[in-house]
Design goal:
globular; seven-stranded mixed sheet; single chain; binds guanosine-5',3'-tetraphosphate; Rossmann fold; alpha+beta; 3 domains; eight-stranded antiparallel sheet
């Protein structure tokens, strides 16, 4: 098969949701359809979220599981589908943001009873920044929940998405009878924990057909007719191009745990989801069908076993063909490297591969050469965009509690930052180090891993900060003045970029007003 054929075969996507909406269950059902797993319960995924634990031993265990489920690939209708797992726990939101840079589309799962939740909002915002094509799956229709029209309104207003339903529920909870697929013009009848065999599907092209009344009863049938009429008059007709541009999101209804509505979702996904897309670099746009290989690292996973310090860097192939044992340029390090054991992930099985194509994710064993965002090419100097750091939400000073282990502490901190566990800022005035994270959990993770993997120990000291903003200016004189005046509020990130540490929303506002020539950025990419 040539590059074009391989490209057309691939669909790389992520499933995002607020914890408990049903992401893991849906993933599992998709894998079952694809024959990648044989029984339910095989995907444990990142269950850290489940207990909202502050117990880091639990996290350590989960890290082992989540590396196996980081990428799950399966074949369905001659397509190779790559699902990238995203941690559900909010403290790991930044991991999820980065993973979203490596997908070409997403499926958003929403709980019918809970509607749009906080984490869904945050994640969809990141997708919208990049116009990522989105399909919405409204889950748990076997339970009582919100009215379907109200939910669509909620999705439109809270997530800022334009939607059009491609399936529609008949009843809900106790009265749930199935869904009508506007995409396939079928009525699919629901049986709890059913396999959704073919006999549950009734082909109805004309909604006036009395077969509809026979199957679901006269009243529900009339209601359905009315609702479908409203849908066709209120919501836009579905066009794939609009979806691909991120301008419209098709919506499906179902019940993942009952394996209901999942096949319809998957079939439509396979028809409409984009093949590997182009990616922006600082230098130019890279197209997937370019013959030369390029790729970037979006995630780094450390080995849990302290005796084997190697890590796995997850690389998304963006163009050309990645080949085993071939020399590639590590752009940041300006050196050539080759990889004897690149790994692919098929569900929970890992295997060494000889080749990988755009859209594929390759695991590279790494002894500390990689950092999130690193680019590999055949020689061209490129820097892929879209892997920013976001301003952390929690900050603490780090103190070294074992001066004999300073070297280990610094090395450990550097490597953990490369992995993207947290962000480290070094203050300009006194050189003190501040760790910034999205959630409180990472502080425990860092302390624990420094001790167990690097033999270093630290403690934290509270520091009252509101935001870290990257600063820039077109006017060097203004920048110089800003640096002189605000030295005590300035720090450098691990890339040496200047960051303003704002104590409160008010100090930030004042700084913005007093220094109009300085730009304050809330992500590291500007
Ligand atoms: P997540 O990855 O998004 O966090 O959600 P997950 O799939 O783990 O699902 C959260 C809970 O919701 C699970 O129940 C799961 O069984 C349930 N669930 C998923 N889909 C449906 C559905 O269509 N209908 C109903 N009624 N429930 C659904 P749990 O009791 O928390 O866990 P488990 O013991 O069942 O694994």
């Amino acid at each position: 098969m040539n590059l074009t054929d391989e490209l057309q075969k691939r669909k790389t996507f992520g499933i995002v949701s607020h914890p408990d909406a049903g992401k893991t269950t849906l993933t599992e059902k998709l894998l079952l359809f694809g024959g990648a797993i044989q029984e339910a319960g095989a995907v444990k995924s990142n269950k850290i979220k489940k207990h909202a634990t502050s117990d880091f031993m639990e996290i350590e265990k989960q890290r082992g599981i989540s590396v196996a489920t980081s990428v799950m690939a399966f074949e369905y209708r001659d397509k190779q589908i790559n699902i990238l797992d995203t941690p559900g726990h909010k403290d790991f939101a930044e991991d999820t943001y980065r993973t979203l840079t490596a997908v070409d589309s997403v499926i958003v799962v929403i709980d019918v009873a809970k509607g749009v939740e906080e984490q869904t909002e945050k994640l969809v915002k990141v997708c919208r920044m990049r116009n990522t094509p989105i399909i919405v799956f409204i889950n748990k229709l076997d339970r009582e929940g919100k009215d379907a029209f109200d939910l669509l309104d909620e999705v439109e207003t809270m997530l800022g998405l334009k939607v059009t339903p491609l399936s529609w529920p008949v009843g809900m909870g106790q009265r749930f009878q199935g869904v009508y697929s506007l995409y396939e013009q079928n009525l699919i009848l629901f049986s709890p924990h059913g396999k959704q065999e073919e006999e549950g599907i009734v082909k109805i092209t004309d909604l006036q057909d009395t077969l509809l009344d026979q199957k679901i009863g006269k009243r529900p049938a009339d209601e359905l007719r009315e609702e479908l009429h409203t849908i066709t008059s209120v919501y836009p007709e579905f066009h794939r191009e609009d979806y691909l541009k991120g301008a419209i999101c098709p919506v499906f209804f179902g019940s993942a745990v009952n394996n209901f509505g999942v096949r319809e979702l998957l079939d439509c996904f396979v028809d409409i989801a984009p093949p590997p897309l182009s990616r922006e670099t600082e230098e130019r746009i890279v197209k997937p069908d370019e013959p030369k290989f390029t790729g970037f690292v979006f995630k780094i996973h450390a080995n849990m076993d302290p005796k084997h310090r190697d890590r796995i860097a997850f690389l998304r192939v963006c163009s050309g063909v990645f080949r085993r044992n071939t020399n590639y340029l590590h752009v940041r390090q300006e050196k050539y490297m080759k990889f004897p054991n690149p790994t692919a992930f098929m569900a929970s099985k890992k295997s060494v591969i000889d080749e990988a194509y755009p859209g594929d994710i390759v695991g590279l064993y790494d002894s500390g050469n990689f950092k999130i965002g690193d680019t590999l090419t055949e020689g061209e100097v490129l820097h892929f965009k879209g892997i920013p750091s976001f301003s952390p939400e929690q900050f603490r000073f780090v103190n070294n509690t074992d001066p004999m282990k300073t070297k280990q502490l610094n090395k450990g901190l550097d490597q953990l930052m490369d992995e993207g566990v947290a962000q480290l800022f070094t203050k300009e005035d006194n050189g003190r180090k501040i760790v910034g994270t999205v959630g409180a959990l990472q502080f425990d993770v860092i302390q624990h891993r420094l001790k167990h993997e690097y033999g270093a120990s630290c403690n934290y000291e509270p520091v009252s900060l509101y935001k870290a903003c990257w600063v820039s200016s077109k006017d060097p004189a203004a920048m110089k003045e800003f640096i002189t005046r605000r030295k005590k509020d300035l720090a450098k990130d691990t890339d040496g970029k200047l960051v303003f540490l704002a104590e409160s929303a008010w100090t930030l506002k004042m700084a913005q007003e007093n220094h109009p020539d300085i730009e304050f950025h809330f992500t590291s990419e500007y």
